[in-house]
Q: What sequence folds into this?
């Protein structure tokens, strides 16, 4: 890279997409901070060519003279602009007519082509091989300028002018160079450089630096678990753009869901999934667990989750495993509801927080509670009755009947994000379903219909 830059010879930079080819060339423009002098316009054969372009030529700031100054001695000819070295990029939109003078019939002025505007700077042909013109046509246009350091431009009248060609010409592509042309064709480009993918250590440093630039710490252990799960076990190749893309998705996710700005395994997993295509589109969807509360409720299954020590098991996987052990849908709902602390409006579980981040654990339990709540609410009345029969048979709790007849207990089954109409519908369904269960049960004292009716009536009140 060094000899190519110092000699301003042409360079072909190739490699896989996302490894930082364009970024590398952009940073080269910061190596030389010396300004250049650029004429605002050129005149040749009675034709005017506008050279200065405020989009690509950034003027350097100069000290303004005092209002008391009588005369100012100009340090240079004001027909020239003092600018930073230009950096111009052309992508797939590049066509051959953009590399020659363009005549404006209204103003009668020509506009300089990109390579002339890029003199004493860098001209990057990005995505080389994807332009409107073929690679051979693009390169043939510059065979003479690259060798002789002069370019020939044509006027609409048929005349020609000679201009200097002093731009550092860089071609960047993620295609195989062998597909762009033969050996004689590629020989015209003086230097070639393959930009390989990052090593694991470099990938980790990029991850840490981008996270630090956003003011959010990312522990090395968290990055190592992320790499082990998504790269080492799957064989996915490291790319330099991956840390930025995944972390940006993670920050967007936390902002959208109004979560604490703190990275966790679950957040990075969800961000990774939204960045890349799924390999198996037909695979069954995975359940994602959610947020906790600590107050135990009557009729809740007695199975207490034990924190798994299995390496690589996420917080979501842990809670999904606990829920899968409960057969009845209402039992799974009651299990999730017991972790909701109605006093502080959050979810808690002391044992799980010994292994997983507290905020992550709460978020997983909250989503799980909401999902299980809406799953039960989506059952038909007959399905709800059958499910309640199975649930009541599984708990065998003498406190169960009094609990079912309490509006407060029924509302404790609802998640934090439940809408008022969902809460009303749930209480009504629960009261109706429980009445039907009692009517179908073995002989015994039937529940007071008035109490169950009170549940339904209370639920409809604002």
A:
């Amino acid at each position: 890279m060094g000899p190519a830059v110092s000699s301003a010879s042409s360079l072909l930079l190739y490699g896989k997409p996302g490894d930082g080819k364009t970024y590398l060339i952009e940073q080269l423009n910061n190596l030389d901070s010396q300004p250049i002098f650029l004429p605002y316009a050129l005149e040749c054969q009675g034709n005017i060519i506008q050279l200065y372009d405020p989009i690509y030529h950034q003027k350097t700031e100069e000290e303004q003279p005092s209002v008391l100054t009588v005369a100012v001695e100009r340090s240079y000819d004001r027909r020239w602009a003092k600018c930073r070295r230009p950096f111009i990029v052309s992508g797939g939109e590049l066509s051959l007519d953009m590399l020659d003078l363009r005549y404006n019939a209204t103003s009668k002025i020509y506009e300089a082509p990109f390579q002339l505007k890029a003199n004493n700077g860098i001209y990057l042909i990005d995505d080389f091989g994807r332009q409107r013109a073929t690679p051979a046509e693009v390169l043939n246009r510059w065979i003479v300028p690259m060798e002789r350091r002069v370019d020939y431009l044509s006027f609409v009248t048929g005349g020609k002018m000679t201009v200097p060609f002093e731009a550092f010409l860089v071609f960047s592509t993620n295609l195989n160079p062998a597909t762009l042309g033969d050996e004689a064709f590629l020989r015209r480009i003086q230097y070639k450089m393959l930009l390989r993918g990052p090593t694991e250590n470099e990938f980790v440093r990029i991850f840490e630096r981008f996270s630090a630039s956003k003011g959010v710490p990312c522990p090395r252990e968290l990055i190592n678990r992320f790499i082990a799960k998504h790269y080492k076990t799957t064989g996915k190749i490291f790319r330099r753009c991956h840390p930025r893309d995944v972390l940006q998705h993670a920050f967007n996710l936390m902002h959208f869901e109004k979560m604490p700005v703190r990275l966790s395994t679950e957040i990075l997993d969800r961000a990774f999934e939204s960045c890349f295509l799924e390999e198996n589109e037909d695979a069954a969807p995975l359940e994602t667990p959610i947020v906790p509360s600590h107050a135990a409720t009557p009729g809740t299954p007695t199975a207490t989750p034990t924190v798994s020590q299995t390496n690589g098991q996420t917080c979501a996987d842990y809670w999904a495993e606990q829920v899968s052990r409960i057969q009845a849908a209402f039992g799974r709902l009651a299990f999730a509801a017991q972790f909701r602390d109605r006093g502080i409006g959050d979810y808690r579980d002391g044992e799980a927080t010994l292994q997983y981040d507290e905020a992550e654990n709460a978020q997983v339990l909250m989503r799980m509670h909401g999902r299980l709540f809406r799953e039960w609410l989506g059952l038909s009345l007959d399905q709800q009755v059958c499910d309640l029969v199975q649930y009541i048979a599984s708990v065998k709790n003498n406190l169960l009947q009094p609990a079912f007849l309490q509006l407060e207990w029924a509302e404790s089954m609802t998640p934090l994000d439940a809408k008022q109409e969902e809460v009303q519908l749930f209480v009504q369904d629960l009261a109706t379903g429980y009445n039907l269960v009692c009517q179908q049960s073995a002989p015994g004292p039937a529940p007071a219909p008035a109490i169950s009716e009170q549940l339904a009536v209370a639920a409809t009140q604002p």
Summary: The chain has 18 helices and 15 strands. The first helix runs from residue 2 to 7. Residues 200-275 form one domain. The mean pLDDT is 80.
